[in-house]
Design goal:
- Residues 15-29 have a biased composition (Polar residues).
- The protein is mainly α and 670 residues long.
- Among the domains are: 1-48 and 66-78, no CATH class; 206-246 and 280-415, no CATH class; 468-546 and 568-631, no CATH class.
- The chain is built from 26 helices and four strands.
- It has helices at 9-12, 17-23, 27-47, 75-80, 143-171, 187-193, 202-218, 257-265, 268-275, 280-292, 296-308, 311-316, 319-328, 333-338, 360-370, 376-391, 393-397, 399-414, 434-442, 446-453, 457-466, 472-487, 500-511, 523-537, 569-591, 603-622, and strands at residues 83-85, 88-90, 219-222, 345-348.
- The strands form two sheets. The protein has a two-stranded antiparallel sheet with strand order 1-2. Strands 3-4 form a two-stranded antiparallel ribbon.
Length: 670
């Protein structure tokens, strides 16, 4: 059946009951109905050119049934804005002066409708979802299966932990035990390792030079005499031996631990043991407390009491006790007594060094105070241990600890001889051999041990630079030991002022391969040996011609100033001649060092600096009268120097008789 066609008249027809029921339906239905009516009115308005007014249809009076306001394009809105003039409708255009139509306030033109939709989902039973896809049911694991998985994971964890422990043990192995530690990598070995398809013969050489530059800038030779003390056995120190004191009232101050320290700090113990004999058990207890280094002020009080009873130093401090004391603070005494050579190790400059034992300073103070009362063998052994302490790089970096060790060495050396022999030190003539006889007699065991154990040039330099030079005796011993290290294996058994010493030095500089500059020269070792030579020379090998000024006469007004007596000119001449010969020999050695290679090895600059510093000291400080001045006009004392002055003197010509003439005429013509 075809739908009935609608006409314009249906729009103006009154509402039927069904239509009115529709208007009274839900707001959503009314909104859709109004929208369809508005669309129909817009289509009718566009098709007709003129529409006549018609009576308005009846509408519901209730607000719920009231239709929404028509849009701006509806017919009613268009008719309401028309003006009738003389029976004709007039529409104002944009050029009109005024608009008689007031502005319309539309407000909320479109009513907002809020539709709430609720969705309910009913539970589906198993019968309703028979045809749909269902989630597969979970498989329940049996207890045996879960236990097997747990056991398997536990075995895997145990194997992983075992592999980690094995790799960690390999990483923590001592590098000294590995065979690669002593492998010297040269250019040939490196060339075999970097072989590839590119036949570049210079590749290994460039890589070797790069490795040398890296090692020179990042590695340094170090030696640690003290090891980590965390696992070491401490000194067995017992409680205060109160039972060794007499049963008197004053002894109650030492019974309680709270008043024990106060008894020593306040000086009460020192006063008591001045009147009472110090028991040996208390003296041993105080030695243990000093080695612990618990309190510096308390250690000072202990030393004062032990010095007043110095007999206990002789009875308690022996060689075994010294070894036990240094072993307790981390020193490797077993290697010290084995006689093996001391070798340094290479370490990165940025590496963190372990700290020194806190009780090293108090132990050095103990040896300093006990040195005058030790036996000769014990004193020699103490000096031998202290020399190894100076080799530690950490001791040289701590000024406070180094001063304490130097004080102990100074007191140990100076107590080998009496005070009268301290004046026979630097520059003594060959006839006075007190200092040399002291070294031969009382240090004959210590110095050979040092020469046999310390053979590395850098360690030799570190030891010599760390030794004190505050008295003539220690200065002489320092020079003697430096010259012995330099000329080893040649034995120095003559005084340093003997004329044979300069000849030995010149011969060693000419014949020793350590002072030959070639491609295999280790310039770090060369710089260390030049430092040893500088310290061994000192003010000069020969006797320094010096005459002290004894009680000069007071100066008076108008009198000439008092001058110190000057040495004999022949002695000054011989001394300066020997100093100039040493400076010239060392300067020739420095001329063979090529500074251009410093790009590869930075230690070349160190060796060059040592040469220049030694030559400058000899020419300006050691030489009497300052640097030698070369006089081009000749020096009568120097027969080898060419004198230019003879070229400026007119030679005297022999006088020849000249004939005498009377005039231009002969006698016959007259």
């Amino acid at each position: 059946m075809k739908p009935q066609k609608r006409s314009i008249r249906d729009f103006f027809a009154p509402l039927s009951q069904s239509s009115q029921a529709t208007l009274e339906s839900t707001p959503l239905q009314r909104a859709s109905s109004n929208a369809s009516n508005a669309q129909a009115s817009r289509s009718t308005n566009s098709s007709t050119s003129a529409i006549t007014t018609a009576p308005a249809p009846t509408r519901a009076t209730s607000t719920e049934a009231a239709p929404p306001q028509p849009s701006q394009n509806s017919v009613n809105s268009g008719a309401s804005r028309r003006i009738v003039s003389n029976g004709e409708q007039i529409v104002l255009n944009s050029d009109s002066d005024s608009d008689s139509l007031p502005d319309l306030d539309w407000g909320d033109s479109k009513p907002s409708f809020k539709v709430s939709t609720t969705t309910t989902r009913s539970k589906r039973t198993a019968d309703e979802v028979d045809g749909d896809l269902r989630r597969p049911p979970k498989k329940e694991k049996s207890k045996e299966q879960s236990f097997s998985l747990l056991l398997e994971s536990a075995h895997k964890n145990i194997e992983t932990e075992q592999r980690i422990k094995e790799h960690k043990a390999v990483l923590e192995e001592d590098l000294e035990d590995t065979p690669k530690a002593n492998l010297a990598i040269n250019e040939d070995i490196l060339g075999q390792a970097v072989q590839d398809d590119d036949d570049d013969p210079e590749k290994a050489h460039r890589l070797f030079l790069a490795m040398q530059r890296t090692n020179a800038t990042q590695l340094q030779s170090v030696y640690y005499f003290f090891e980590d003390t965390s696992d070491s056995t401490p000194v067995q120190h017992h409680k205060f031996p109160y039972d060794s004191l007499p049963k008197q009232r004053w002894a109650s101050s030492f019974q309680d631990s709270t008043t024990l320290d106060q008894a020593f700090l306040t000086g009460f113990a020192h006063q008591v043991f001045r009147l009472q004999e110090l028991p040996e058990e208390i003296a041993s207890w105080m030695l243990d407390q000093i080695c612990i280094g618990r309190n510096e002020v308390l250690n000072e009080r202990f030393l004062e009491i032990l010095e007043s009873h110095h007999v206990h130093f002789q009875t308690l401090l022996d060689i075994k006790k010294l070894d036990a004391i240094f072993s307790s603070i981390g020193a490797n005494v077993q290697k010290l007594n084995s006689g093996a050579k001391v070798a340094p190790s290479s370490e990165d400059q940025s590496a963190t060094r372990p700290s020194l034992p806190a009780s090293l300073k108090s132990t050095a103070k103990l040896l300093h105070r006990a040195a005058p009362w030790l036996h000769t063998k014990v004193r020699s052994h103490a000096l031998y241990i202290l020399c190894h302490v100076c080799l530690d790089n950490r001791v040289q970096g701590d000024v406070d600890v180094l001063n304490s060790v130097q004080d102990a060495i100074e007191a140990t050396i100076c107590n080998f001889a009496d005070n009268q022999r301290l004046t026979s030190g630097v520059g003594s003539p060959p006839a006075e051999q007190h200092t040399q006889s002291l070294i031969v007699s009382q240090l004959s065991d210590t110095i050979p041990q040092l020469l046999s154990r310390i053979t590395h040039p850098i360690l030799q330099r570190n030891l010599i630079c760390a030794l004190p030079a505050r008295s003539p005796l220690t200065t002489y011993l320092r020079r003697h030991l430096a010259l012995s290290f330099l000329l080893d294996p040649t034995t120095v058994n003559v005084p340093l002022a003997d004329p044979k010493i300069p000849d030995l030095v010149h011969k060693h500089l000419n014949t020793s391969p350590n002072f030959r500059i070639n491609k295999d020269t280790d310039y770090g070792h060369l710089a260390a040996r030049l430092t040893l030579l500088d310290i061994a020379i000192g003010p000069g090998f020969l006797s320094v011609p010096y005459q002290p000024l004894i009680s000069p006469a007071p100066s008076r007004a108008g009198s000439s100033p008092v001058t110190s007596p000057f040495p004999i000119s022949s002695e000054i001449k011989d001394f300066n001649k020997e100093v100039d010969a040493l400076a010239q020999h060392i300067k020739l050695l420095g001329n063979t060092i090529v500074e251009a290679g410093a790009v590869v090895d930075l230690t070349i600059l160190d060796a060059k600096d040592c040469v220049e510093r030694l030559c400058s000291r000899l020419e300006h400080a050691a030489r009497i009268g300052g640097k030698r001045v070369h006089n081009i006009f000749g020096n009568p004392d120097d027969e080898r120097q060419l004198r230019v002055s003879k070229f400026f003197l007119n030679a005297k010509k022999p006088a020849t008789p000249t004939p005498q003439r009377g005039g231009i005429f002969d006698e016959d013509d007259m």
